[in-house]
Amino acid sequence: MEEGVARKVVLALRTLVRYALVLALCLPLAMGCYALWDSHVVYERADVTQWQPYKPTEPEPLSFWELQRINPEVRAWLSVYGTNIDYPVCQATPNEREKYLTTDAKGEYSLSGALFMDTANAPDFSDFATIVYGHHMENDVMFGSITNFSNETFFAEHQYGNLFVNDEDYGLEFFCYLDADAYDRDIYRTDFGSEKDREDYLRLLHERARWWRDDVKMGAQDRIALLSTCSSGYTNARAILVAKICNERFENPFVKIPNLGTGVDELGGWLGIPVWCWLVLALFAAVVMVLAWTRRSEKA
User: Which residue has the higher pLDDT, 175 or 50?
Assistant: First the structure.
């Protein structure tokens, strides 16, 4: 009798150990599946193709107005030719300065956030210097392309962009790329009280620039836009691409290679099925195999 009880206890312990092994094997795989799926969703929501239906078009940008009706804090549309930067630009109220770090252009929660203007700037980009922020993300999502300009050849080959604001198109001519600290108030400023202030600021940008385009004529009466994102150089490092805002529109020299988005589906490229889907299938197969092995062991 006691021998039978002992045998049942041993079998129960063996079964418990096997199921614990199943859990130990499957839990990390399940967590990996969830992490990849979550990452896929974040990048998919930030992908430039998700926002193209709202891009201003000729002759009437009805789609852009629709986006502004959804979220009245949408101020402009920013494009950097030859990159995936082709997004709406938002501006929060001064008491919600960091709102668009985790809110998209529709006003919905999103880890990828949105491109957004400094709350101290005029909403129509009429200030001497307007600062636009955006997350630096992989696959050239959001402002992920900005750090590409750290390469001299890339900077030389990508000179133009477009800004749509107040129902007008303005050309962007990129003339400066620099690295800065996020708390450098000499660079990150929007208040310029005099012409000398503006001239001094342009000289500072020139001194601090990694790359500078000498053929772009700049003066205190011009307007500029600073596109700022995180970089990996050091803690609080920022990469900044600076453009002159021009009344002249520039043709897109990359028009034959349109923005195709980040290719987020390439996260799992075999047969067009994302990696996280393959991992889910692998998880299911692993569970079935371990359970089958457990049943055979119990019968033995």
Answer: 175
Q: How far apart are CA 142 and CA 113, in angstroms?
A: 9
Q: 60: which 2 tokens? A: 């009437």
Burial of 155 from C-beta contacts in 10 A (0-12 / 13-18 / 19+): buried
| pLDDT tens for each residue of 241-298 | 999 999 999 999 997 554 444 444 444 445 445 555 555 566 666 666 666 666 665 5
Counting Cβ atoms within 10 Å, is residue 152 exposed (0-12), middle (13-18) or buried (19+)? exposed
Q: How far apart (Å, rounded) are the C-alpha atoms in residues 7 and 48?
A: 63
C-alpha span between 5 and 279 (Å, rounded): 41
Contact in structure between 209 and 113 (CB atoms under 8 Å): no
Q: Buried b vs exposed e over 6-15: b needs ≥16 C-beta within 10 Å?
A: eeeeeeeeee
Extract the tokens encoding 217.
Answer: 């004529």
Name 41's Cβ contacts closer than 8 Å, sequence gap at least 6.
none
User: Cα separations (Å) of 188 from 120, 133, 184, 205, 218?
Assistant: 11, 11, 6, 11, 19
Q: Is the pTM of this model over 0.70?
A: yes
Q: Coil, strand or helix: which one is 11?
A: helix
> What is the phi/psi pair of residue 252, to 5°?
-85, 110
Backbone angles phi, psi at 86, to 5 degrees: -160, 70
| pLDDT for res 39 | 46
